[in-house]
Amino acid sequence: MKTDSQQNTMSTQLAEKIRSRIVQEQLPAGHVFMTEGQLAEEYQVSRTIVREAVSRLRALGILDGKQRKGLVVRRPDLVQLLSESLPLLTVSQNDRDELKLLRYVLEIGAIELAVRNATSAQLNQLDSLVEEMQCCAERQEWERSVELDLAFHTLVLEMTNSRYVAGMQQILAEYFHSLPEVDTLDSAQTARIVWEHAELASAIRRQDLEHARVLIRQQFQDLI
Length: 224
What we know:
- The chain has about 220 residues and is mainly alpha-helical.
- It has 2 domains: about 5-75, Arc Repressor Mutant, subunit A (Orthogonal Bundle); about 80-224, GntR ligand-binding domain-like (Four Helix Bundle (Hemerythrin (Met), subunit A)).
- Helices cover about 70% and strands about 5% of the residues.
- The protein has 10 helices and 2 strands.
- Strands 1-2 form a two-stranded antiparallel sheet.
- Helix 4 packs parallel to helix 8.
- The longest helix has 25 residues, at about 95-115.
- The model has no long low-confidence stretch (mean pLDDT about 85).
- InterPro entries: GntR_C, TF_FadR/GntR_C, Tscrpt_reg_HTH_GntR, WH-like_DNA-bd_sf, WH_DNA-bd_sf.
């Protein structure tokens, strides 16, 4: 009788064999793969091992079950995987520091694409967000100001035209915005933040990449 450790190792190995086979054979999304019974027979393992291996691949979005047909190949959504896994990645301060670094790298790296690809409609949206940020700062509507900051940076990342970049950054930004605030900003700090956003919107509009880089670093330097 196999121990739990042996069973876990075998299911891990089988999951990797199945994943490698899907990649090597370039099986498209929607392809009907095999039934669990066929997998057990082909790889000479128990149904329990197969179920555990398949369960892992289903959790990653690589396989899915289809009634009366068997297992179907899927293409995993990286953004969704990050969204679902994020709570498990933040159990320690070191984990949070790693996520801060990831967010910083995404923001800094994306600004070049944002400057290059921004549309007139997106630029006008940035200007509108800055105007509303100014009004909220004057009325001291801090909660709405946080929402506008998130919307501003989400829009900047959308300008990259990359679904992965924009999606991953939005998930990270929403996570950090959800954390309890530890510092209360005074009026001078708030005015500075609004000014930085206005300057960044202007730099993107002018396609002034160097100035945009300086500004985005200023806004996210606390992350590192």
